[in-house]
Write a structure and sequence with these properties.
alpha/beta, single chain, four-stranded mixed sheet, about 35% strand
């Protein structure tokens, strides 16, 4: 196990496991059902990294993004080919949040949302940049996205 392992709460953990297999090539390592159809704990691996998941259990304080109307957390996955990984996730049922594009920090990067409300950032590193180059790129992006905020600083 890694030092930090994400633990996702899903409304429909069994369906989420099947989705992660199709979308991200996950392999199922373990699953503990507390009642028929209710997963209390499962472990899948995506590209060698463990991801835990469980069904919603409000009595344990475990609610997923659909119940909470979103999540401030995103899963970030480095892949060899972001465009292929993105297309595979969308074909499996993910919703496009941001098409892959070359970003100012040197990654080709796109974002999808899975059917359970979790967002997945997919990236492939395409070029190394200096900190100064990244800062210039960030400033340019801010000026394009938020011109009034960028000019006020």
């Amino acid at each position: 196990m890694n030092t930090i392992t994400p633990h996702l709460v899903c409304a429909g953990a069994a369906e989420a496991i099947e989705f992660y297999k199709k979308a991200f090539g996950a392999s199922e390592e373990s699953k503990l059902e507390m009642a028929p159809g209710m997963i209390a704990h499962a472990c899948v691996r995506i590209a060698g990294s463990a991801v835990f998941l469980m069904d919603e259990a409000p009595h344990w304080g475990a609610k997923g993004p659909k119940t909470l109307n979103g999540s401030p957390v995103s899963m970030h996955v480095y892949v060899p080919d972001v465009d292929a990984a993105f297309d595979k996730a969308v074909a499996a049922g993910a919703t496009v949040v941001m098409q892959p594009q070359d970003m100012f920090w040197g990654d080709r990067y796109g974002v999808v949302e899975d059917p359970f409300g979790h967002r997945w950032s997919l990236a492939t590193h395409v070029r190394d940049l200096t900190q100064a180059e990244i800062e210039r790129g960030a400033k340019t992006m801010m000026e394009q996205d938020c011109p009034s905020k960028a000019s006020a600083e």
